Amino acid sequence: MNDETTSLPVPFNDLGRGTELLRPQIDEAIARVLSSGWYVLGPEHNSFEAELADYLGVRHAVGVGNGTDALQLALSALGVTAGDTVLTAANAGGYTSTAARSLGAVPVFADVDPSSLLLTVETISAALEVLPSRPRVIVVTHLFGAVADIHSIVDWAHSRDILVVEDCAQSLGAMAGDVRAGSVADVSTTSFYPTKNLGALGDGGAVFTSDDDVADVLRQLRQYGWESKYRTTRSGGRNSRLDELQAAILRAKLPHLDRWSDRRREIHLSYEQSIGAGGRMVNRANPGFVGHLAVLDVNDRERAQSILAERGIRSDIHYPISDHKQPIAAGGSIVPLPVTDAATERILSVPLFPELTAVEVARVSAALAEI
After folding, report:
1. Under a CB-based contact definition with an 8 Å cutoff, are residues 146 and 152 in contact?
2. What angle do CA 315, 289, 335 make, to 5 degrees?
3. Would you state the pLDDT for residue 91?
4. Are residues 166 and 194 in contact, defined by beta-carbon separation less than 8 angstroms?
């Protein structure tokens, strides 16, 4: 390592690196759109929907404007309306809570497993023993790039007539057993925000389902509730479309997603092998993990942040405020959330993106060894 390399900060993320490496393919994709004269719901969009559905092993992928719209439209397509309750985890950034509230529904929360920080059948079941009524839908966020035990959750929920949504915004490409995450629940969603594992150069999202009727509803809801052009037959519609330019860019990126996931796991494994006795990596490098974030659970977060900062390594917290402690959630949570509350004080994220250099990975690993 030369002095210049070791003295430069290690960024938490650097989206420009990945863009430059794919610049020829991205330029070609943009040029196709510019030449086509078709900029919304055109051939690039339609091809991307088909390619993404095929990748996930579902019948339908429905492109929308962003990941939060994807959640809202998924809930709406499953019949969630004002006054319904939507059960989810409180440690996943608040996106499901936002989507539920936008429909007039009420988000309620279950605690998470202390090891994985994911929802489980046990934590969901414990929540239902406290909640006054059964939720209409459970939204399971595959957090940090790891996959919850979605097969067990879906079986348990369906036996109680509860529908399930998978939020795959942080886990696109991960395996849930022998199938892809996003292909198990009634409906699944993702975001193409630029920091995601499959990120656009702007906002975007998608909803997945193998139910033809639900897919038809989603396509109506994303465009004003139209049954056909200018003919509105479904209430709750909005303007939420994945534009042609972003679809073309995502088509250029999709073939690289599995390779990027492999690199993310490789980096994460280095961290797992390096971290000292003062903490642990929340996840493990395996096919059910695509390394969206490298999250530490540490005994002394302030000290860990100091060690990283002194070595020029950027860090972040995902997420510092749980949903039930947001100012908008004045009532807090009916269900006790001790694991969620404790994790908020302990978790810390370190750099993890495919274009990190070997030197940068070694620097982060060396710092983790001191924790």
Report:
1. no
2. 75
3. 98
4. no
User: Which domains are assigned to the chain?
Assistant: 21-255 (3.40.640.10), 256-369 (3.90.1150.10)
- What does R_g of the chain's alpha carbons equal in angstroms? 21
Q: What is the pLDDT of residue 5?
A: 58
Report pLDDT digits (tens) over 47-70.
999 999 999 999 999 999 999 999
Q: How many CB atoms lie within 10 A of CB 235?
A: 9
**Helix pair angle (244-253, 23-36), 10° resolution:** 150
Provide the mean pLDDT of the chain. 97
Cα–Cα distance between 75 and 365 in angstroms, integer? 41
> 3-class SS at 109?
strand
CA-to-CA separations, 30 to 39, 138, 207, 260, 266, in angstroms, rounded: 11, 38, 24, 22, 31
Q: Are 55 and 259 in contact (CB under 8 A)?
A: no
The contacts of residue 212 (CB under 8 Å, 6+ apart) are 59, 60
Q: Which residue, among 309, 302, 343, 351, has the nearest Cα to 325 in the 3D structure?
A: 343
According to the model, what pLDDT value does residue 7 have? 77
Which residues of the chain fall below pLDDT 70?
1-6
Instruction: State residue 330's pLDDT score.
Output: 80
In the structure encoding, which two tokens stand for residue 286, read together? 């395996």
**Range list of β-strands (E), 185-305:** 187-191, 205-209, 226-228, 231-232, 279-281, 294-298
Specify burial of residue 351 (Cβ count, 10 A radius: 0-12, 13-18, 19+): buried
Alpha-carbon dihedral sign for residues 78, 113, 328, 95: negative
Q: What is the C-alpha separation between 139 and 73, in angstroms, rounded?
A: 13
Q: Which residue from 183, 211, 228, 232 is spatially nearest to 79, judged by alpha carbons?
A: 211
The pTM assigned to this predicted structure is 0.97
Query: What is d(CA 170, CA 117) in angstroms, rounded to the nearest whole number?
Result: 14
- Beta-bridge mates of residue 140: 166
Instruction: Note the pLDDT tens digit of each residue in 225-264.
Output: 999 999 999 999 999 999 999 999 999 999 999 999 999 9
Nearest to 177 by CA among 67, 38, 57, 291: 57
